[in-house]
Amino acid sequence: MRHFLEVDDLSIDELRRVLQLSTQPDSPKMLDGQGVALIFEKPSGRTRNSMEMAVVQLGGHPMYIKPEELGIDTRETAEDVVRVMAGYHAALAARVFDHGRLQRMAATDAMPVINLLSDVAHPMQALADLLTIEQEIGLSDVGRVAYVGDANNVWRSLAIGCSMLGIDTAVASPPGHGPSELDVDRVLASGGSLLVTNDPQEAVQGADVVYTDVWTSMGQESEKEQRLDAFANFRVDSTLMSRASASGIFMHCLPAHRGEEVTNEVMESSRSKVFPQAHNRMHSARGLLSWIVGEAMGR
Fold first, then answer.
1. Is 253 a catalytic residue?
2. 197 has which bridge partners?
3. Does CATH place domain 125-278 in 3.40.50.1370?
4. From 68, 267, 269, 283, which residue has the greatest number of CB atoms within 10 Å?
5. The whole model's pTM is what?
6. Which residue in 41, 121, 35, 40 sits closest to 84, CA to CA?
7. Residue 168 pairs with which residues in a beta bridge?
């Protein structure tokens, strides 16, 4: 039984295999006649659409489940939920507030559990990001991926994935919003180097990829004004992009708050790959599902 709660739940070879499978639109129908439970405690248009279509492309039936339909840990424990779902579906994928809930589900080993987003990690986004970098530049040709902004779950999973593939990363955040020591250790344990700085220009210098995310994520609305002040000098604009490699690209996991973390000029520039990146959420989901319900389970 295999689960995917963070990118390094895969070995390096397995990560490369998932990315390879993501490029095969005519994948075998690994889910023919089977369902995949999609539990959403937090809504997301990209995640729902990409996962549902990936399941359909593999011949399966996606089942979108709202939080009130289950009442996890109020009406029924997370462990009981996943054991019940294992009788209906080939895999369970969940977008949750608390990473610990996913860990408890996976610990039952009742069925493969996939992290669609938690407060700790966003590995499905990282797969799409790595697939985009491979298509636009080539993973073996990337010298540095620079992340500007809050060192959040998106940053962590991307940095771990890059590190596994030998890609150096840099993260520039205002004081108090940088990575934790535990996250830094986990990134470095995967093999690559990491620059942690409070200076966006230092992080972006010569980078092949410049990446950012919203300054205020879902659930942080009460912190918005404080965050707007803290991140005011961390906006990705054309001046900051000019410090990147001449062929460097811009990426964003979306949704974007244009005029805050990134200017409209950068979003609409030829260097911006945010929409191919968003489309790759579906392709990478198909690749991961193909692997986890097919090769990883010996089907």
1. yes
2. 172
3. yes
4. 283
5. 0.96
6. 35
7. 144
